[in-house]
Amino acid sequence: MDECPRCQGSLEMLSLGDASTVTCPHCEYADIPVEHERQVEEPESWQTAFNRFYRSQKPQSDE
Ligand SMILES: [Zn+2]
Description:
With 63 residues, the protein is α+β, with helices and mostly antiparallel strands. The protein contains one helix and three strands, in the order βββα.
């Protein structure tokens, strides 16, 4: 699957630890093909998690 079901744009693969997912940079849709996690949660929750993850990856931070 590399086409956004929401806007038909190109999806982008993301990895978070040993989990991976695809997101749409156009409409911020996020697909959650996790296997070892519990039930799929709200896309917003994952979006927040990814945002926090990427922010923590950056060496330059105010925190
Ligand atoms: Zn999209």
